[in-house]
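Teaching assistant here, posting this on the class forum so everyone can see the example we discussed in section. The complex has two components, and the goal was to see what a joint structure prediction looks like when all of them are supplied at once.
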Amino acid sequence: MVPSFNRRKTASAAIAAIAFSLLPTLAQAHIIHSGSGGFGSGFEHPLTGLDHFLAMFAVGLWGAQIGGRSVWTLPVTFPLIMVVGGILGIAGVPLPGVEIGIALSILVLGLAIAARWKPAEWIVLALISVFAICHGHAHGAELPNTADPADYAIGFVIATGLIHVIGIGVGLVCEKPYQGRLTRILGGLVALGGLYFLALAVM
Amino acid sequence: MIARWSGPAIAVAGAACILSIVVAHPPGDDRVSAWLLWTALSVSQVLPLFGLGVALSVIPAFPAVLGGGAFVAGMFSGFAVNPNVAHWFAGPAGASQHLYLSIPISGLAAGALLIAPNAARRWLAPPFALAIGAMAAITTRLTDPTLHDPAVQRLGLFIGLWIVTAAALGMRAFHRSWFHVPIRILGSWLLASGLLYGGAAIAAKPAAIEIPSPKIQTPADRPPADIDTLFPQFDQPETMRDEERPRP
């Protein structure tokens, strides 16, 4: 069956969206720095690790796939709970197995998207809250003594949120063509990444 | 037409004013100009004000105007209040860096306002705008490079009003039904950055320098010293060669 013009247009938009989602990792060397430990440094931090990037991208993608309120409840909940983990990390509270938790978050989120799993909202929020604690703790423990902590915190949170927004955008665009198969394929790729990081964490 | 473009027009006019100030007084030569560019217009200061403007754009006109008035009243009260009030928040580490939590408090207030349900937002807007205005004024006073020049306070008031008005009018004129999604996401960013910054200030313990306690020696601890054994070289004849002298 030959795709209609609209379908073709949507498919092109989906490919463009996927390509756009790869930009932050490619363009991380071009971020404007406002001095050591300022906004630029905080903005760069979540983008430098592929594991964090994949998990946050998957949160946005899953929210878009579930649809309805989840489009915004997931990306709103994740940074708020991540802060709790971040403060625990800053305070030096130990969280055993945090690397395994991060790898599992990528794997589970990827599998959920690939399987098109749409559980009740509270289950989704509870799940991503656990993952957000792991990610926040890892970031908090690595938080440097910054020259401008306010700008650093804002840059860090905005970068995290932008990855969610990219995930939402890609998810909303990819849900339309081919009955959402593109989103499921992306979920499968994210899950493969999760497997890789799990193997790294366990070994 | 005028209502639609008033927000962007205010944004452009304010930016032009700031640009003219910076061009007339280069930041390298003028402290106030440098403060304007690097402190008053820093991301941490602008974002809560922008958040307040966005929140005012999605509520009915009357509470929005009330909120704008409360913001101005908050700024005047922040300028009028005794600066020692800020020291109530001096407990957390690095109080001078986070300006006595004024930046996290304004971020939390703006974030909570954006993330609140629509019905609650119109009631919360005036008190939260008052708090954000007061925190903006306290930040202006604490970062004032001249310590006394009233021009800095006027500039702080101008920047606060400019950002809030331009954001509120601009977003109101171009409102779309899906705006509730990015508005809540922006609110979560403001809340998260305020919590992270404020929480980090409270949670972080400044690393204490470990100084070994000095060993206090009482006369009873010391062995009785014989003055002759302490400086044996003093007892040697002047003719003795250096290599023959006993080493201490």
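For the discussion questions: Chain A touches chain B through 30 residues (CB under 8 Å). Confidence is low (pLDDT under 50) at residues 1-5, 20-36 of chain A. Think about how each of these relates to the inputs above.
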